[in-house]
């Protein structure tokens, strides 16, 4: 085996595998290089635990002559037979390597080895990938070579682990940072923060449709129910809105108690306010239907819920606002203030959906003119519109 070429692979990984734009491409190129070096690989897997609200881990599977397959596992996977009856569980829990011949009788206790036996695999090796924080992740290596891996080939694979772990750790940390920003501040804000917009006062102007909603009767509800029930109700209630908002191109910026602030950006060059506001109203109707269908069992009774949403369109200021080294990436401006005031009007008018005059003008729907009303903080009364379908 050419030791200099093996060193080249290690150096390539440590240098960030720059010729590979994605982790999948890195897997493919790394395995192809090992094949050319004389390591007879058949199937290689990398398994990484993640910090994600919905996903417990990710997998990358390379097979000779095929595209890299990416997969995810949900929380609770570690209690399933697919995990407990896998050699990977030994690596994750004990941090050591595991090697077996899938053709041997002792391999029959692992279903994955039986599947690999059927494919003609003759050797199976799992190795830990240890990150700097000592968290253990895993990799698996197989061959169809009649005699399995030679000692020289095994040592070559083992020698790659530190470099592969460093590359995987860096990619995982970047993905985690991006995912956490998306989770807590939204996709657009997350991209801006990662792009370097982290100084206080760094703001942009944005034309957008604005969504501001809250749950009706939340205060008395939270007073008479256990805190755990209130949290569960809020989570289910927000689920009723977040999916429709995202499906229609909106971005949830903030949860404020039982309130939700979202924006639907209108592109400066070719954005169509009518099209954007139409999508906003589609999301509002879908959310209304979901909240109407929401029922939460408390003791022997079923709690039913109502919410109100105010829709407006205008220009807002979008960026970093805060004090000291504690910042919030949010939006402010007269347009947001008006949406907040209109949301209070929804309850007063016993409406689920209310809209400003600007939103109603941009969205040709069967609106009902509810009249002009004084709005706190504004010198001029504002005309408010409601959906005609809600008149009953």
From TrEMBL:
Record-annotated Guanylate cyclase domain positions: 209-343
InterPro entries attached to this UniProt entry: A/G_cyclase (IPR001054), Adenylyl/Guanylyl_Cyclase_3/4 (IPR050697), Nucleotide_cyclase (IPR029787)
UniProt cross-references to Pfam families, sorted A to Z: Guanylate_cyc (PF00211)
SMART domains with a match to the protein in the record: CYCc
Native source organism of the sequence: Bradyrhizobium oligotrophicum S58
Name of the protein this chain belongs to: Putative Adenylate/Guanylate cyclase
UniProt feature coiled coil, ranges: none
BP GO annotations: cAMP biosynthetic process; intracellular signal transduction
PANTHER family, alphabetized: ADENYLATE CYCLASE, TERMINAL-DIFFERENTIATION SPECIFIC-RELATED, BLR2264 PROTEIN
Molecular function (Gene Ontology), one example: adenylate cyclase activity
């Amino acid at each position: 085996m050419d030791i200099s070429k093996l060193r080249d692979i290690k150096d390539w990984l440590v240098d960030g595998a720059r010729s590979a734009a994605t982790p999948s491409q890195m897997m493919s190129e790394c395995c192809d290089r090992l094949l050319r070096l004389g390591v007879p690989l058949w199937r290689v897997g990398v398994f990484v635990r993640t910090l994600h609200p919905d996903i417990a881990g990710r997998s990358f599977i390379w097979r000779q002559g095929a595209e890299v397959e990416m997969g995810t596992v949900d929380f609770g996977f570690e209690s399933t037979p697919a995990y407990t009856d896998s050699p990977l569980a030994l690596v994750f829990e004990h941090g050591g390597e595991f090697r077996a011949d899938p053709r041997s009788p002792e391999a029959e206790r692992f279903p994955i080895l039986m599947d690999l036996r059927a494919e003609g695999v003759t050797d199976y090796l799992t190795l830990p990938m240890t990150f700097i924080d000592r968290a253990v992740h895993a990799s698996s290596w197989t061959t169809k070579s009649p005699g399995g891996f030679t000692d020289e080939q095994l040592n070559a694979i083992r020698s790659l682990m530190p470099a592969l772990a460093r590359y995987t750790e860096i990619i995982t940390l970047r993905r985690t940072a991006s995912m956490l920003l998306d989770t807590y501040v939204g996709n657009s804000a997350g991209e801006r923060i990662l792009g370097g917009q982290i100084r206080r006062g760094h703001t942009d102007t944005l034309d957008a449709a604005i969504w501001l909603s809250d749950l009706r009767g939340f205060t008395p509800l939270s007073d008479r129910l256990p805190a755990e029930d209130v949290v569960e109700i809020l989570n289910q209630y927000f689920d009723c809105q977040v999916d429709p908002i995202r499906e229609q191109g909106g971005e949830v910026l903030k949860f404020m108690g039982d309130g939700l602030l979202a924006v639907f950006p209108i592109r400066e060059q070719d954005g169509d306010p009518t099209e954007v506001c139409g999508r906003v109203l589609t999301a509002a109707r879908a959310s209304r239907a979901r909240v109407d269908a929401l029922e939460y069992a408390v003791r022997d009774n079923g709690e039913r819920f109502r919410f109100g949403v105010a829709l407006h369109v205008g220009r807002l200021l979008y960026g970093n606002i805060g004090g000291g080294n504690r910042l919030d990436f949010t939006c402010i401006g007269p347009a947001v203030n008006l949406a907040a005031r209109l949301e209070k009007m929804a309850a007063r008018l016993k409406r689920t959906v209310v809209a400003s005059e600007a939103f109603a003008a941009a969205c040709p729907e069967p609106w009902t003119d509810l009249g002009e009303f004084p709005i706190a903080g504004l010198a001029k009364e504002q005309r408010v519109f409601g959906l005609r379908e809600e008149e009953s």
